[in-house]
Amino acid sequence: MTEAPGSAGRHGDQHARHTPGTPCWVSLMVHGLAATQAFYSALFDWEFQPGPQQLGPYVRALLDGREVAGIGQLPPDRHLPLAWTPYLASDDVDRTAHTVRLSGGTVAVGPLDAADAGRMAIGSDPAGAVFGIWQAADHLGTSLSGPPGTPAWNELVTYETTSVAKFYETAFGLRQEAVLAAGFDYVNLRAGGRPVAGIHGVGTALPRDRGPHWVTYFEAADVTEAAAHLTDLGGRVVRPVRETAQGRVVMVADPEGARFALLQSAR
To answer: How would DSSP label each residue in 75-107?
Structure first.
């Protein structure tokens, strides 16, 4: 992680349609929906309301009345690695899905309508990292950034950045910018003149049981306290707190094993 700017500024509301290619929503599919809701409600003070049910039971998480994330329930027979998945904005999900396929990616779900909320698809890049595509209608996506419990950044952890960054550039119109000052293989993806996501190439350090994957960073007022609270709630710390140029970061997992990061932004 090298740069994690709030997409609407500190403590900002997002009412406008997201620039194509921008992560506009994060969603998690789990086995125990009720238990997962209880965990994140206690951790982030989220409340929940029903969302579109096209792929099964699904709820939207709200913070101060603003939608910030979604959680759905997997069918009992689906045993997939659990992970927070970013949805990248598109003005035409069918066209984007077609471009994803032409660019070497796959589309596993959709495109399909999510009631009146919008139109969606779920795909993966050539290295296998899963992402969503969202064409907004009534639901524009995450509508709050900045406060604790809101998504702050999305980062792809993969083998190397060159070919994968080219894929996201071609499929979503994002610009890639190598971060030479990082001292390792890192690229920022830019949309609308600003960084919106990162790609971290880690080579053979990528865990074999994980494969390439996206990581969502959620804002926290104090990552040490938040990590301790998470542990009390049944989660675990995957990687200890570390200092970055953007603030203090800790990698964690919820009780079902879905990994994410907590970010205490530098003020």
So the answer is: -TT-----B-EEEEE-S-HHHHHHHHHHTT-EE
